[in-house]
Amino acid sequence: MTGYETIKVERRGRVGLITLDRPEALNALNTQLMDEVVAAAGEFDRDPEVGALVLTGSERAFAAGADIKEMASLEFADAYLSGLFTGWEAFTRLRKPVVAAVAGYALGGGCELAMMCDILLAADTARFGQPEIKLGVIPGMGGTQRLTRAIGKAKAMDLVLTGRMMDAEEAERSGLVARIVPVADLLDEAVKLAATIAEMSPVATLMAKEAVNRAFETTLAEGVYFERRLFNGAFATADQKEGMAAFAEKRPPNFEGR
Ligand code: CO8
Questions:
Q1: Is 172 in a helix, a strand, or coil?
Q2: Which of the listed residues 58, 68, 85 should we mutate to test ligand 1's pocket, taking the one with most ligand atoms within 8 A of CB?
Q3: Which of 62, 85, 221, 251 is most buried, judged by most C-beta within 10 A?
Q4: Rounded to 5 degrees, what angle do the CA atoms 67, 6, 31 make?
Q5: Member of which family (predicted)?
Q6: Residue 227 is among the residues annotated as catalytic for this protein
Q7: What pTM value is reported for the model?
Q8: What is the secondary structure of 31-88 as a DSSP string?
Q9: Does 210 participate in catalysis according to the annotation?
């Protein structure tokens, strides 16, 4: 995992940590950064020693959006034919849980990238917004859809149509973020959270992520049916036997991922 120029990548125990690192542009998401994040995250996703990922930025910005300077002179055909930024779709197909640790600005594509993650942990300094309307465009990496699902139409319209930012308190109140922590503790808390997830049965963890995400793609009846199939399937794993035996024997489980 070397040779990256726009991100830093490290392992902390069973947690794969990716840090966006374009400080000169407040971590604006250009094509190189997208390709590097997708490559590094994909490697962690395939690594059996990794159980969960953390994606973070700097104290000043998680990411201040897609790179406006890269996009400014594009014509329709350039954007359409190149499939501009569609590489991020691979990020949404990661199978392991990803914790977004957000401090400072998470704007435009930055907010959209945070919403592609599975759990959003915010520093008290975090500020979220979809300011694309002020640039004469609209969100293009899922913002109108994921934000609306996360916080409902009223607030999504408010943010998308005015481009205003919301602070961490409002984001938590609205259901966008799971928890707020002091900015100084953000990374430690995010890694701790990911490490907790990484201690669970890997099979059950992937099943749980898959099942929750299904809720956004299907009807309630189909979603419950999908969940039941996975739930029943969990009884074919050694980890289910171990988890339930450990409970009965009043000891911590030792999951082997089988
Ligand atoms: N792109 C490129 N460069 C950026 C970006 C960005 N999104 N944001 C900040 N920068 C750069 C600035 O240009 C500046 O560089 P320089 O020093 O060379 O001028 C440097 O980062 C520092 O920024 P500021 O001096 O502006 O810092 P401030 O603290 O004064 O302001 C803000 C911080 C409020 C975050 C401000 O930088 C800002 O408003 N940034 C733009 C936010 C924005 O509009 N984001 C949305 C971008 S559009 C988008 O994300 C669309 C996504 C969908 C695309 C999908 C296509 C299919």
A1: helix
A2: 68
A3: 62
A4: 40
A5: Belongs to the enoyl-CoA hydratase/isomerase family.
A6: no
A7: 0.97
A8: HHHHHHHHHHHHHHHH-TT--EEEEE--SSEEE--B-HHHHTT--HHHHHHHTTTGGG
A9: no
Active site residue 245: no
Could you give the ipTM of this predicted complex?
A: 0.97
**Does 69 have pLDDT greater than 90?**
yes
pLDDT at residue 2 greater than cutoff 80: no
Q: 10 C-alpha to center of ligand 1: Å?
A: 26
| Contact (CB, 8 A) for 22 and 6 | yes
List Cα–Cα distances, 13 to 70, 79, 86, 163, 199, in angstroms.
36, 40, 31, 39, 10
Closest-CA residue, ligand 1 atom 37, reads 64
Distance 66 CA to ligand 1 centre (A): 8
Cα 226 to Cα 118, 172, 217: the distances in Å are 19, 29, 11
